[in-house]
Structure to design on (347 residues):
C-alpha cells in the first residue's frame, strides 16, 4: 500500500545540510502494522510528515497504492496523522474534536453524530461526546485523538509517539487495546516511537532507524533474537555487547573465551550475550568459569539484574530473586552458547 523508495530529506542550506532521511526504502502492506523505532533525532517524525505530504522531499519517491504522491496535497492523500502532542482543540468538546475531519469533508450533521458515537464506543469512551477535552485525563485525551484520526477512515493511519505522554501501566494496557482495535478494523498503520516496548507490543514488523537510515527491519521476534548490529542491540537494551575475535567455535572476548554457535562468522565481530546466557554460580564455580565480583543488583519484579565485574570488564546477568548473589560476593560465570549472538564488527 505504502512504498518509499530512496526517500531523502535535507534541512539547512547547501553549505551546511543536515540529512534527516538518507535514502530510506520502506514498504507497508495493506492491514500491516509497521512500527519505526529509533532514538530521538533519527528522523521518525520527518518520515511521517513526508508520507502525509507535510514535508518536501530532497530525493526519492512516495507511492500510495502504486501512485506517486509528488504534488498530491495533504488532504487528497487519504492518510491520517496523529501527532506526538495530540493537539486537541481545547475550545471544542470531545464530539467536536472527533467530528473535525468529517466536517472538513462536508459530511452531513446526522452522519457526523452517528460516526462520532460509533468511534467513541470503539475507543472505550461511550457517550463522552459532550465532555470538555480539558476535563479529560491524558489517557482519555489520547483516545479522543485516536478517534479523531480514525473518523475519516484513512487508508493509512500514522501515529507519532502515540503513547509517549502516558505512564507505563496505562501505556501497556492501551498498546494491547490498540493492536486489537486495528486488527478488528483492518487498519493499515505506520507508527513511530523511541520506546522499544511500545514498538514490540504494537507491531507486526519493526523498522529500526539510526541517523535517518534503516538499521534493521523484521518481525519483533527476528529483531529481538538477531539484532543486525551493535547499535540495534544496545538500543534494544542489551548491555553485554563487546568486540570479539572468533576462531572456530570460540570467541576471544574481554570476558575470556566464550562459546559461539556453530557456523558463526570468523575473525573480528561484535558479540552479544543475552542476560539469560550468563550462568552464575556461587563461589568460583566449575573449573574454567570466569571469576567475577558482584558490583550491584537491580530489582526487576520477579528477577534481579546482577552487574558483575571481571577485572576491567563488566557483565550483566539476571537471577531469580531467591538465588541472586549479594553485592561484593565472588561468583563463577559460564556462558550458554545458544544465548550468544555474533554480530558484524562495529563501525
Ligand atoms: P525524531 O522524530 O526521530 O526525533 P525528527 O524527524 O524530528 O526526528 O528529526 C530528524 C532530524 O532532522 C533532527 O536532526 C532534527 O533536528 C532535524 N529536523 C527536523 N525537522 C527540521 C526542520 N523543520 N528544520 C531543520 N531541521 C529539522
Ligand atoms: Mg519525533
Amino acid at each position: 500500500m505504502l512504498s518509499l523508495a530512496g526517500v531523502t530529506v535535507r534541512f539547512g542550506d547547501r553549505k551546511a545540510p543536515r540529512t534527516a532521511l538518507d535514502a530510506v526504502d520502506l514498504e507497508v502492506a495493506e492491514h500491516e502494522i509497521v512500527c519505526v523505532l529509533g532514538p530521538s533525532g533519527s528522523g521518525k517524525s520527518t518520515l511521517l510528515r513526508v508520507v502525509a505530504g507535510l514535508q518536501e522531499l530532497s530525493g526519492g519517491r512516495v507511492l500510495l497504492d502504486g501512485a506517486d504522491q509528488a504534488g498530491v496535497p495533504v488532504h487528497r492523500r487519504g492518510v491520517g496523522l496523529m501527532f506526538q502532542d495530540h493537539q486537541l482543540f481545547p475550545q471544542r468538546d470531545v464530539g467536536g474534536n472527533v467530528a473535525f475531519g468529517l466536517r472538513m469533508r462536508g459530511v452531513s450533521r446526522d452522519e457526523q453524530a452517528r460516526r462520532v458515537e460509533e468511534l467513541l464506543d470503539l475507543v472505550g469512551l461511550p457517550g463522552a461526546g459532550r465532555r470538555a477535552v480539558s476535563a479529560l485525563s491524558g489517557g482519555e485525551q489520547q483516545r479522543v485523538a485516536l478517534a479523531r484520526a480514525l473518523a475519516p477512515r484513512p487508508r493509512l493511519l500514522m501515529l507519532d509517539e502515540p503513547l509517549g505522554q502516558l505512564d507505563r501501566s496505562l501505556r501497556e494496557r492501551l498498546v494491547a487495546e490498540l493492536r486489537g482495535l486495528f486488527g478488528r478494523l483492518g487498519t493499515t498503520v505506520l507508527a513511530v516511537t523511541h520506546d522499544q516496548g511500545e514498538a514490540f507490543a504494537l507491531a507486526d514488523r519493526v523498522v529500526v532507524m539510526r541517523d535517518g537510515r534503516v538499521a534493521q527491519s523484521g518481525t519483533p521476534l527476528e529483531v529481538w533474537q538477531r539484532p543486525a548490529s551493535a547499535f540495534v542491540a544496545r538500543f534494544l537494551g542489551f548491555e553485554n555487547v563487546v568486540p570479539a575475535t572468533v576462531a572456530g567455535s570460540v570467541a576471544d572476548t574481554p570476558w575470556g573465551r566464550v562459546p559461539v554457535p556453530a557456523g558463526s562468522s570468523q575473525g573480528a565481530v561484535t558479540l552479544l550475550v543475552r542476560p539469560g546466557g550468563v550462568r552464575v554460580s556461587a563461589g568460583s564455580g566449575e573449573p574454567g568459569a570466569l571469576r567475577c565480583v558482584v558490583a550491584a543488583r537491580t530489582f526487576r519484579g520477579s528477577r534481579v539484574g546482577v552487574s558483575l565485574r571481571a577485572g576491567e570488564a563488566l557483565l550483566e546477568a539476571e537471577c531469580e530473586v531467591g538465588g541472586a548473589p549479594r553485592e561484593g560476593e565472588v561468583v563463577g560465570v559460564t556462558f550458554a552458547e545458544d544465548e550468544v549472538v555474533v554480530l558484524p564488527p562495529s563501525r
Observations:
- The pocket of magnesium ion (ligand 2) is lined by residues 44-45, 84, 160 (CB under 6 Å).
- Residues 163 and 269 are 36 Å apart (CA to CA).
- The longest strand covers residues 18-28.
